[in-house]
Amino acid sequence: MNCLGIESTAHTFGIAVVSDKEKILSNEKEVFTTSSGGMIPNKVAEHHKRVCDSVLKKALEKANVKIEEIGLISYSHGPGLSPALVVGKDFAKSLALNHKKNIIGVNHCIAHLTIGTLVTPAKDPVYLYVSGVNTQVIALAGGKFRIFGETLDIGLGNALDKFGREAGLGFPAGPVIEKLALEGKYIELPYTVKGMDVSFAGLVTKTKQLLEKGEKVEDLCYSIQETCFAMLAEVSERAMAHCEKNELLLIGGVGANKRLIEMLEKMCSERNAKFYSVPLEYAGDQAAMIAWQGILEFNAGKRISEIDIYPYERVDDVDVIWQQSKLEL
Ligand code: AMP
Ligand code: MG
């Protein structure tokens, strides 16, 4: 069976075709970007509406699959920006109705977790999930993905993007901050860890004040990275010790950051644990993970009664009814 996955929770509108023989046949996307301002939900939704037909065409062509050869449509039903979620849901619904296909909605964050174990050797890791909106330390325990620690305010990606907006670095700011940090020196910033939770809002406020005072952008970029990544290394290590798991898997868009990878690798090697990061193509938002999650849940017997969106659904709201599996890329 081929599954067509649709991703539209935030900046990315993606469509992928994945076969249940664990093969990713295509993974196309268009990403909303701006050179000023942030992500305005209605602007993002307009972007997604504009690109949906062309992304579908590309995804089918690349996979060399006709819509008739699709057995299942899977869309990300949340969490995310409501206007953006609605575009993906409506597009999935019209495809399913027009072509008489089965349809399933899946949790976007869980899809990040399962694509991670699909494309890396990790078996039962602690997951460090760091994206725009989310920053969570997660592990599978008792049939659910449990959140052991998380941000008490904003996700790290959003924190980086907020700083980037103040400093005029454009959106998304993460990659620019990573580059500028190479030229920076350390300035002390608020380091906020409470148990296994972290907080970034105070640090963002502090960096804004320091910017206004004329501190060098490069120094702030370096110091934000060193401080926030050290906080993440600390809580990940604590979760690994608590859950007695010896693998750490880094996922989400901020997982593209080489300095973050380096710090987590060091922490893991010091405790004889294995560190994995998801290849760039599957680290950020894309639709292959939505298609794969659709296949896992559909094959495990899940059917949906309503085609709806769930903007606030958390990973621990979902029962893990499927088996994990592996993919040789
Ligand atoms: P996601 O929501 O998972 O697609 O991740 C998007 C977030 O990742 C945005 O907030 C970006 O600023 C951030 N990001 C992307 N690349 C990097 C990078 N190299 N370093 C830090 N953050 C990044
Ligand atoms: Mg994401």
* SSE class: alpha/beta
The figure for the number of domains is 2
Largest sheet: 5 strands, mixed
| Strand composition percent | 15-25%
Bound molecules: adenosine monophosphate, magnesium ion
Along the chain, the helix and strand elements come as EEEHEHEHEEEHHEEHHEHEHH
Q: Could you say what the CATH architecture of the largest domain is?
A: 2-Layer Sandwich
Number of H- or I-type helical stretches: 10
How are the secondary structure elements laid out?
Layout: E1 2-7, E2 12-19, E3 23-31, H1 41-63, E4 70-78, H2 82-98, E5 102-107, H3 108-119, E6 126-130, E7 135-141, E8 144-150, H4 156-167, H5 174-181, E9 193-194, E10 197-198, H6 201-212, H7 217-243, E11 247-251, H8 258-270, E12 274-277, H9 280-283, H10 288-299
Parallel strand pairs: 1-4, 4-5, 6-11, 11-12
Antiparallel strand pairs: 1-2, 2-3, 6-7, 7-8, 9-10
Helix pairs in contact: 1-2, 3-10, 4-6, 5-7, 7-8
Bound molecules: adenosine monophosphate and magnesium ion.
Structure, described:
- By secondary structure, the chain is α/β, with parallel strands linked by helices.
- It folds into two domains: 2-112 and 283-326, Nucleotidyltransferase, domain 5 (2-Layer Sandwich); 121-277, 2-Layer Sandwich (Nucleotidyltransferase, domain 5), CATH 3.30.420.40.
- The chain is 43% helix and 21% strand.
- It has ten helices and twelve strands.
- The chain has helices at residues 41-63, 82-98, 108-119, 156-167, 174-181, 201-212, 217-243, 258-270, 280-283, 288-299, and strands spanning 2-7, 12-19, 23-31, 70-78, 102-107, 126-130, 135-141, 144-150, 193-194, 197-198, 247-251, 274-277.
- The strands form three sheets. Strands 3-2-1-4-5 form a five-stranded mixed β-sheet, sandwiched between helices. Strands 8-7-6-11-12 form a five-stranded mixed β-sheet, with helices on both faces.
- Helix 3 (108-119) crosses helix 10 (288-299) and helix 7 packs parallel to helix 8 (258-270).
- The longest helix is centred in the C-terminal third of the chain and has 27 residues, at 217-243.
- It is globular and about 60 Å long.
- It starts with a strand and ends in a 30-residue tail after the last helix.
- The mean pLDDT is 95.
- The structure holds adenosine monophosphate and magnesium ion.
